[in-house]
Design goal:
The complex is a heterodimer. By secondary structure, chain A is an alpha/beta fold. Chain A has one domain. Chain A contains seven helices and six strands. A five-stranded mixed β-sheet of chain B has the order 4-3-2-5-6, covered by helices on one side. In chain B, a hairpin with a 5-residue loop joins strand 2 and strand 3 (about 90-95). Classes of the chains: A alpha/beta, B alpha/beta.
């Protein structure tokens, strides 16, 4: 019998291709990853099992853990429409909001001051506003019944979406801190009700299954 | 002895020969690099998933235009009351008569069991609706000391237990009294 010599194959695997693929994927994920931008007011939302993603074109009303209210408008075009609507609805009730302020308003990430202070607030950068928040100078939007500015904002938002998109329910969301007292949230819901907004979303983060 | 032999063949001695330096391979082992790359990929995939915020829908009843219209009465045997109190305490009692409030917690073994138990009771008496869901009515009441997390937790539990009929209401005085007394309403006083 002839003896066959089985050639031993090398165990060496060429990793170059795999390395290429993995770095390609890595680059892709790094580029597409959208880190949460630094927020002016940090809000830790409660967790839930809800699965609906938050749309971009949405107006978010936040309540921080001290019960102060803030408003963030998702799309820059909406900001222009909403501030114009607010000015035309409030009729100089909150002092003169000139055109320059209205223009700069599109840059404002978060409304966190009474409307009277808007002309100064729009000139500040996000970093400056964050500093103000740390120093406790950001008072939030007043929402008590005697000075219900938040109600005026809600009304402006509702009118804008009703007129441009014919939406009877504007896409609004409530974003509350998990530790915030329910009174602020209740008041916000009450204001929504007063202004005929009955449907809204509650912003939460994904439930961490290990936690429970 | 000192020269470096780069050629592969042609040894020069008959038996001893020079020290042949091994030809160095240009191949680099990429395995650790691939490991690292995949580690980073998994990190980025996970972090992008986690930072996403999700939303839960909430609809409140419309303010009736006509104040005369009275809401339809609900049978007490369908009702479960949940009262969120301070420090993550949750009180509950069935039916519409305030009394015998019991404490529970926001956990699968606490609140969820309370809901499921009441659902079973309601099912025994009233059956299920056309979609096969419970006819139970949950009244969610939040005291002023409750926090937002409590509210979301309860609403989440409604979703999970497929409770379709629920309403957020104000806490009434009788219930506040009962909570003060540790769960027992003394109606006689």
């Amino acid at each position: 019998m002839p003896k066959f010599k089985v050639k031993r194959g090398s165990t060496w695997v060429d990793m170059t291709a795999m390395c290429d693929v993995s770095f390609l994927l890595l680059t892709f994920f790094i580029l597409t990853a959208k880190f949460r931008p630094a927020e002016i007011v940090p809000i830790t939302t409660p967790t839930s099992r809800a699965e609906n993603a938050v749309a971009e074109d949405m107006v978010t009303f936040s309540i921080d853990k001290d019960g102060k209210a803030y408003m963030a408008i998702g799309k820059p075009e909406r900001k222009t429409q909403i501030i114009e609507k607010l000015v035309s609805l409030s009729q100089n009730k909150y002092g003169n909001i000139d055109e320059n302020t209205q223009k700069l308003f599109t840059r404002l990430e978060l409304v966190g001051v009474p409307i009277q202070q808007l002309p100064q607030a729009v000139k500040r950068s996000t970093a400056e506003l964050t500093e103000m928040r740390v120093a406790g100078q950001l008072s939030g939007i007043p929402m008590d019944s005697t000075n219900n500015q938040l109600g005026d904002w809600v009304q402006a938002v509702r009118y804008v979406y009703a007129e441009t998109d014919k939406l009877s329910n504007p896409p609004v969301a409530i974003k509350g801190d998990r530790a915030s007292n329910i009174k602020g949230i209740k008041r916000l819901i009450e204001i929504f009700k007063e202004k005929d907004v009955y449907k809204y979303k509650l912003v939460t983060s994904l439930e961490n299954k290990v936690e429970k | 002895m000192a020269d470096i032999d780069t050629s592969s063949g042609g040894g020069h001695g008959k038996h001893k020969g020079g020290v042949r330096s091994k030809k160095l391979s240009t191949r680099v082992d990429l395995t650790p690099m691939v490991d690292l790359a995949f580690l980073l990929i998994s990190f980025f995939m996970l972090t992008t998933q986690l930072s996403k915020s999700v939303a839960m829908d909430l609809a409140m009843p419309k303010k009736p235009d006509n104040v005369e219209v009275k809401p339809e009465p609900v049978a007490g045997s369908k009702v479960l009351n949940l009262i969120a109190d301070k420090d993550d305490v949750l009180w509950y009692y069935p039916d519409v008569v305030v009394g015998g409030l019991k404490k529970t917690e926001y956990t699968p073994s606490g609140l969820r069991q309370v809901i499921l138990k009441r659902q079973a009771e309601v099912k025994a008496k009233w059956g299920l609706d056309n979609d096969g869901d419970s006819k139970m009515v949950v009244l969610i009441k939040l005291t002023d000391d409750a926090n937002y997390k409590n509210m979301v937790d309860i609403l989440d539990e409604m979703e999970l237990t497929k409770t379709k009929i629920y309403a957020i209401q104000d806490v009434n005085d009788l219930e506040l009294e009962a909570i003060k007394n540790g769960g027992n309403a003394n109606i006689s006083e």
